[in-house]
Design brief:
The chain has 169 residues and is mainly α. It folds into two domains: 79 residues, Winged helix-like DNA-binding domain superfamily/Winged helix DNA-binding domain (Arc Repressor Mutant, subunit A), CATH 1.10.10.10; 61 residues, Iron dependent repressor, metal binding and dimerisation domain (Diphtheria Toxin Repressor, domain 2), CATH 1.10.60. The strands form two sheets. The chain has a two-stranded antiparallel sheet with strand order 1-2. Helix 1 packs across helix 2 and helix 1 packs across helix 4. The relative contact order is 0.12.
């Protein structure tokens, strides 16, 4: 799944992995600090050659600046995009946890898989939905998410969980 990003240097397509790298760089390099390639590899559980290749692609898109064999920094355009990526993840995780009542660990895993397929328009509508959700009285929320048996979960008992789909988080 790729994501088009039309602001910044040019029309950019990011893979799910590149999105994860940008989010991780932004997290590890909070407050504009540089990130060592080895720290990024350890955080994502990937090998150094993979990190080096992915950073090169992010540099080509103007989202990361890296000193020669040195620290990697997220550019302003990269930081803006990383913020939107992190917010999209947070929204999906909230939907899965608060509205659908998945256990926190499962909501986090599933959000990592779902977030990459979610368009900006869908993320905006999800944000609006959760904003309205927050305004509902607690009794209404409980009524809307009440469980009467588990027929819907039983319909999907052969699908397993999100671990088989390669989420990074």
């Amino acid at each position: 799944m790729t994501m088009k990003h039309n602001r910044g240097t040019a029309d950019q397509e990011l893979t799910a992995a590149q999105q994860d790298y940008l989010e991780a760089l932004s997290l590890l390099g909070a407050e504009g600090a540089g990130v060592r390639v080895t720290d990024l590899a350890a955080h994502l559980g990937t090998r150094l050659p993979t990190v080096t290749r992915t950073l090169q692609r992010l540099r080509e898109r103007g989202l990361v600046h890296q000193e020669v064999r040195g620290l990697a920094y997220v550019t302003l355009a990269g930081r803006r995009l990383a913020g939107q990526l992190a917010e999209r993840h947070r929204l999906v995780e909230r939907l899965l946890g608060e509205v659908l009542h998945l256990p926190p660990e499962q909501a986090a895993r599933d959000a990592c898989v779902i977030e990459h397929g979610l368009s900006g328009a869908a993320a905006g509508r999800l944000a609006a939905f959760l904003g309205r959700w927050d305004q509902l009285p607690q009794a209404t929320r409980r009524f809307l998410t009440g469980r009467r048996g588990r027929p819907s979960e039983e319909r999907f008992d052969l699908l397993g969980d999100s671990r088989s789909f390669g989420g990074r988080h």
